[in-house]
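Data card: per-record layout.
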Amino acid sequence: MRYDTKIAVVVRADLADWQKLNVTAFLASGIAHASDTVMGEPYQDASDNRYLPLVREPVLCFAADAEGLATAHRRALGRGLATAVYTDEMFATGNDADNRAVVRAVEADELTLAGLGLYGPRNAVDRAVKGLKLHG
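The structure for this 136-residue chain is written out next.
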């Protein structure tokens, strides 16, 4: 199935593996709130165990250097995409309030990005991540 929207997660390639996974998880949680339609329906197995809903469409994961992340960030904001950010400073905090505070303290073009989550029209997301390689 081809969706009119697209989800992309971009993480900085030089992060430690645990950081890449942590950033991806946080960004995916942000994407889950991008619209009322991004989430699918709850799951249920044949034993009647219920499971939480997942996003309804594939998530494309990209790797980028700091410059590539900054470019994708600038493009995403310019296209009005729903955008989640994770900055280097957030690795040193221990709670959501402090995470928001460290992002709030820095101008958009000065953020030290560890990752981005993007959601929006397929073509706009494609343009925002143009030139980036899928995470390998």
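Known properties of this structure: The beta strands are 5-12, 43-44, 50-51, 59-64, 82-87, 113-121, 133-134. The radius of gyration is 15 Å.

See the next section for split statistics.
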